[in-house]
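Researcher: We're teaching a course module on how sequence relates to structure. For the next exercise, students receive a sequence and then see the predicted structure as tokens, so they can try to spot secondary structure elements on their own. Here is the exercise chain.
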Amino acid sequence: MSAPDRGRWLAPLLVCHDCGLPQVQTALPGPGLVRCRRCGAVLRRVAPGSVHRAVHLNLAALVLFAVANVHPFLDFTFEGRGQVVLLASGVVRLWQEGMPLLSGIVLAASLLFPLAKMLATLWALGPFLLGLRVVGQARALRLADALRAWAMLDVFLLAVIVAWVKLADIAVLHPGVGLWAFAAALLLATAADASLDHHDLWQRLAPQATLARLDPGTGPLLGCPACDQVVVLRRGLSRARCPRCGHAVHPPRAEAIARGWALLLTAFAFYVPANLLPVMTVTTLGRGEPSTILGGVALLVEHGMYPVAAIVFTASVLVPLFKFLALGFLLVTAQRGTEAWRRERTLLYRIVEFVGRWSMVDVFVVALLVALVDMGALATIEAGTGITAFAATVIATMVASASFDPRLIWNRPR
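Model: And here is the predicted structure for the students to work with:
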């Protein structure tokens, strides 16, 4: 066997999570990206020293996040009356208004999921610094990866900016220590995620499979969706179990299309009342006026706040509509086994995955407004049933895009 052939036989083997193509990992001399040669997906982000860097950044982010939760977040002054709110004040106000479901959604996305993600990351990475192995590292890594889309600190910060601009003409707001700590925690956590080499982490727990260790003749090669380990699906079996992280591994299945349609129709069923019902009611000096999503955008335009109106309209109206159309297109073409535009459809799927979570900005804006404007007969903002329906729409579309298997674009379902 020649040296190049021996190198390919012993090199780490990867299976693209988007198109399912097995390929030998290309060796990089330094930091960089390893991409799939068929669909262009990022197979690995090579970042030497990322474990130490990620541990320190996440630890600092965790400390700052704790500071953000116990110190004043925003100082609100209206008609001579002042009020200080905490990061969790919106959650408490929504609960007090009899909206436990919406309160739980905001609590999970802005507090519980980010905290769980930081703790899981530290549990998975911390022992590596000491050269140790502890129980549950693989599960902690899987949990941190699963929570990445649902820990919405960045979306919440955008909601703070939108709420600030909405109230700027009628009140005076000052950032508190909690807001500065929150922004710093977000930057540190984002930097840790952006520079982390997940392949290196899983390699420390168990080595990546190679062609020399596998027997491709006994069945197709599949990639684990959690840790990217390569598994041989024995002939006659419909699924396998990843030996490194324990996640279920299976080929593209037709059930994913039916599940996607069910979730997409559920999301659209919530989207209709979300746009027709009021998302909040503004009461000033005893006079209340309910407002829908489009009504709020029109009010921003009326006051000349065009950039904020564009952000709210895009995140709350255009993005959900785009996801409905894009997911419907992906499901139809996958169901029909369309072979055209495979690379473009894969790119469309990635865009849908990225933009979906940003629609939660309207939910967070309402949570912030009901916490800030709570001054009895002088001025009060109350959440409406429309915002709960809108939150359900966002969650359903996110679950729908997450349940769609992009390998269906390249392979016919079983």
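Model: If you want an answer key for the exercise: The longest strand covers residues 42-46. The chain has two domains: 3-46+207-243, 50-201+253-409.
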